[in-house]
Amino acid sequence: MPSLLKAENRAQLAAHGLKTIKKIQNEVISEADKAIGDVANFEKKYHTVFTSFQNHQ
């Protein structure tokens, strides 16, 4: 019986660990998406400024 309890506890810990990993994975993906958006916004602003600069030369 004790080995069955150990196995059940390990299974519960593993399930909890997988949920934690999935949560962290989702947070990383969310932060990466934000970073991609930031880069895209920077590129738009840079392009606008560069184009404006070229037009005034």
Describe the structure.
The protein is mainly α. The protein has 1 helix and no strands. The protein starts with a helix and ends with a helix.
Concise structural overview:
The chain is mainly alpha-helical.
Itemize the secondary structure elements and their pairings.
Layout: H1 2-55
Protein traits:
about 55 residues; mainly alpha; 1 helix
Share of residues in helices: over 70%
Strand element count: 0
Radius of gyration: 25 Å
Tell the overall outline: rod-shaped
SS-based class: mainly alpha
Contiguous helical run count: 1
Mean pLDDT, all residues:
92
Q: What is the succession of H and E elements?
A: H
Instruction: Give the CA-CA distance, first to last residue.
Output: 84 Å
Percentage of residues in strands: under 5%
Largest sheet: none
Poorly predicted sequence stretches spanning 5 or more consecutive residues: none
